[in-house]
Amino acid sequence: QARTLAGSSAHADQDHRDTLMLALSPTQLFNGDGIIEGATVRIDDGRVVDVVAGVSADAVRLEGLLAPGFIDVQVNGGGGVLFNDAQTVETLATIAAAHKRFGVTGFMATLISDERGKAANAIEAASKAIDAGVEGLLGLHLEGPWLSKPRRGVHPAEFLRDLDDADLKLLTRKHPFPLMITVAPEQISLASIKALAEAGVIVSLGHTAASTEMVEEALAADATGFTHLFNAMPPMEGRNPGALGVALGSTSSWAGLILDGVHVHPASARAAFAAKTANRLILVSDAMATIGSKDTSMSLFGERIEVRDGALRTAAGTLAGAHLELSGAVRNAVSMLHATREEALRMASLTPAEFLGVDHERGRIAAGQRADFVLLDDALNVKATWIGGRATH
Hints:
By secondary structure, the protein is α/β, with parallel strands linked by helices.
């Protein structure tokens, strides 16, 4: 749990002092653009002051590759808990703690389609958690309930509906964090997409069977992303490209990808990587409660979900989120996509930061940026994580 939930002011003061005038000299440094050797990162009060060449005498030596902290835009749960089950500060703190172990320094808590009141509860919980200083919580992702029933996946059909005026009023209020929503273009008007985008809401398209023209119109109305590319959308055909074809052909939109080797065949994932590049393709975990937990099963809307062959499935075999953490997706990007280490790391840091509009302070190791880092070994396993200049494990 986050230290601010139970820690004393004395502990908070000590933690604050621990982030002052810290210097780190890793074996290698990925600054967001490239990998360099023999550099020192200077930190003051939770932010990077500068990055200088050479190993400073006062610096803490780090064996490994220091990279910007990972940003996950789709996290349903972790540490044995699911956000849909309880929209509370305590739930978010538990999820944050589970994902910090895997290098995640910023995540979008994700609520999938549920009863109408839960979206408001999620917004309130996210606000309270950020006020309480839950480390790692970046914002909120509402995945539905404005989705297509034919492409709903495990989202219960009884909760799916069109986006109405009450939804629009709730979503376009000023929020103290990034707010992302996944919608099917057929369940929302173009005027609503425009209104949401103008209010700063990040509109991503997914769980859709919309026509090619409808998807193109949604992008023209300022939708900017696609949620878990390939999944919950029809396959692309030569004369009927649909959401997938539009996504692959769009140079201005971003697309999330669940890279576990199960949700998307590696060959299909490589095609997406070739089309979107590391500048527009975002690695996401779609993690459920089992991540960071010893549990191999969980309950979702009263249905038992089990880890089978590396994936979470219902008894009928339907995929239900993913048993994946973001550092695993980074490793898979190298092995499955044949991405360089720089490309794999970018898709888990700077690219999602740009998508969320937070790249002014996240996604790079450079002066003025938050001191959010992950230290990796040669195999890209996580050795340590820093949030705001403070080591979390």
